[in-house]
């Protein structure tokens, strides 16, 4: 990976480095962290993931190049991944133990720290749109369950039957987990997210997920929780997290990172590494993308790999494995 890329927990982590000059804008994304090992993925699958990451980056970059907002950019970037069955978000979300889908999403902008989220939606085609609607069209921050679906429908968002989210790959994963009564690391991961800086210096973050394979009905992870998976504050940083949600909630990963940057003066990488070390100490794993107020960014993860990428006026890059 290029400048500022780093990993946590690797034997020889890549050094972080500040960009040569402050970018006018930047977008950083992730498509989930987990056991992603070179040699265990076909060339075709790797190419498909890299193409999907680039499509997500370009969707957000198109907005930022035109002087648009960081908020619009992160929403656009994650919608691409919600619509792509490669990712555990939207179409392609994992199944609950009951054979349905319950999706979570959150979004936050850094100027006023406005935020919105939804948990356990079952009929919203793009949960991130519902999260933004909560932020902008209600007095609340979070809606859950049938109430969240009803609110989204009342706002005129695209609604679908729950079967829209079905894919054969995810059904096979559900059947395996139910039969073996055990989850692999991959079954616990799959959140996608984005963070952005626009030409006006505004930061934003978004996170969206289908959750954990064979999760119990009503289970909520970190993705819709402001401060756990998602956080943005102008002048400080924006964060989106992915991993074993129960541990990210207990550490309050996203807010912990921004507070360490803001109050302790730590670098993005230092703050993220400390937060993920706390997650690891409790037994969890995963990763974060962090974007600073000046455009510096960092990828930090203690899992085997993380689908990730970044784009600015200088160009775009993607990575999957730990050693990139």
Approximately what portion of the residues adopt beta-strand conformation? 15-25%
N-end to C-end Cα span? 5 Å
**For the report, how would you describe the main beta sheet?**
8 strands, mixed
Helix percent band? 25-40%
Spatial strand sequence of the major β-sheet: 4-3-2-6-5-1-11-12
**Low-pLDDT regions:** 1-5, 7-20
**Which structural class fits the helix and strand makeup?**
alpha+beta
Per DSSP E runs of 2 or more residues, the count of β-strands stands at 12
What gyration radius follows from the Cα positions, in whole Å?
18 Å
Number of helices: 9
Secondary-structure element order, as H and E?
Answer: EHHEEHEHHHEEEEHHHEEEE
Mean pLDDT: 91
Q: Which descriptor suits the 3D outline?
A: globular
From the structure above, extract its key features.
324 residues, alpha+beta, 8-stranded mixed beta sheet, 4-stranded antiparallel beta sheet, globular
Describe the structure.
It is a single chain. The protein is of the alpha+beta class and about 325 residues long. The protein has helices at about 45-65, 70-80, 125-135, 145-155, 170-180, 185-190, 245-250, 255-265, 270-280, and strands at about 25-35, 105-110, 115-120, 140-145, 190-195, 205-210, 230-235, 235-245, 285-290, 295-300, 305-310, 315-320. The strands form two sheets. It has an eight-stranded mixed sheet. Helix 2 (about 70-80) runs antiparallel to helix 3 (about 125-135), helix 7 (about 245-250) packs across helix 9 and helix 8 (about 255-265) runs antiparallel to helix 9 (about 270-280). The N and C termini lie close together (about 5 Å). Residues about 1-5 and about 5-20 have low confidence and may be disordered.
